[in-house]
Amino acid sequence: MADWTLYEVFVRSKHGLNHKHVGSVHAADAQMALENARELYTRRSEGVSLWVVPAGQITASAGDEKEPFFDPADDKVYRHASFYKLPPEVDQM
Amino acid sequence: MYAQQVDTGAKRLKSLEEMSPEERHFQEKVDAEVRIEPKNWMPEGYRKTLIRQISQHAHSEIVGMLPEGNWLTRAPTLKRKLQLMAKIQDEAGHGLYLYSAMETLGADRDEEIEKLHRGEVKFSSIFTYPTLTWADMGAIGWLVDGAAIVNQVPLQRCSYGPYARAMIRVCKEESFHQRQGYEILLTMMREGTDEQKAMVQDAINRFWWPSLMMFGPSDANSPNSAQSMAWKIKRHGNDELRQRFLDQTVPQLEFLGCTAPDPDLKWNEETGHYDFGEINWQEFFDVLKGHSPCGVERIQQRKSAIDEGQWVRDAAVAYARNQERKAKSAA
């Protein structure tokens, strides 16, 4: 099994929703990964669509980089609706 | 508990002041109930403890298919056979969720399975007992899966994200297991012959104490347990979980019209809990050491399943390569 590829599995639980990461499977190829993922993650109709992605193909931000990497968003409070104070007459906007 | 006596490597707990800055940052996150994810820094002891625990837990799910597989071909009706097959497939699924969670810690699945086969990693003591009659399928679903639920519900809040998320999926499915087990017993008690009713009582007699042992001996004074609690891998002591299981199980036992093989079992008005007799811990330690009815046989079955399935895995790889070649030459 060591030479099988690790695939990350994403499930769309119903139409209109995003695919969501649920776990991973090992498989000899992508088709087998889809079938394994169906058996493992959708035995009780948990999905209407499946994606499998070779784990090695995913580029991720480093785990503990939360502060420096996401810093640029911290000092831009004017990106939030709540930053703009409006008079009560029009505040439902 | 599916993972019993997990070693954390800790002799005593470190205070925040004694910790390195990284360790302290980690512990503060855990204390604040922030989940730890695979790429986050974690103490080596935390990583190793989780690998040990999840590996043992995963092996237990996989080995746990064997005692039930024993009755697949002899299930009394097609309906019962389909239900049992669905339950066993779930157990395989639980094992796979857990192996996946374990791999996020850098452990290798094949290597952990090898360790199981060499006897270096254990599986739960409960699966070393034989399944002698059909009623055992009921008793296992009700008692063993019932005890597993009590243990696994708090694990849904475990500090390690992938383990906690695997447990959420597992717990959703376990409830079907427990109910199908109880329904097997209830049907035998309501519609069965005297012989079949006696079978139910006999199955309960054999699985009662081993189910209580699943939670492991009291860990009130154990440094391993204190460390696991500080890391929020573990949330409750073994005795507390055992009592919780017992309190919810005894009324179900009475509803069945059966008894427990424990003359000391009785409701205690003062404590609001059931009192129960002394557990034979020597039996538990003997089982962990490998002196058990089916321990050796279970590992042998696991090994031959892997060896005899080699041609299937080889065929899958050969097929995948062929498909790839065909796709290339068509392009």
Summarize the structure.
The complex is a heterodimer of chains A (93) and B (331). Chain A has 93 residues and is α+β, with helices and mostly antiparallel strands.
Describe this structure in words.
- The complex is a heterodimer of chains A (93) and B (331).
- With 93 residues, chain A is α+β, with helices and mostly antiparallel strands.
- In chain A, 18% of the residues lie in helices and 25% in strands.
- In chain A, strands 2-1-3 form a 3-stranded antiparallel beta sheet, covered by helices on one side.
- Chain B is mostly helical and 331 residues long.
- Chain B has a two-stranded antiparallel ribbon with strand order 1-2.
- In chain B, helix 6 (135-155) runs parallel beside helix 8.
- The mean pLDDT of chain B is 94.
- Chain A binds chain B through residues 1-4, 6, 22-26, 28-29, 31-32, 39-40, 43-44, 60, 62-64, and chain B through 37-41, 86, 89-90, 93, 96-97, 100, 103, 108-110, 165-166, 169, 173, 313, 316-317, 319-320, 323-324.
Order the strands across the largest sheet of chain B as they lie in space: 1-2
Rg over C-alpha atoms of chain B, rounded to the nearest angstrom: 22 Å
Coarse structural class of chain B: mainly alpha
Structural class category of chain A? alpha+beta
Largest interface comes to:
A-B, 22 and 27 residues
Largest sheet: number of strands, sense, barrel closure of chain B: 2 strands, antiparallel
Pfam families (chain A): PaaB (PF06243)
Organism (chain A): Alcanivorax xiamenensis
Protein name (chain A): Phenylacetate-CoA oxygenase subunit PaaB
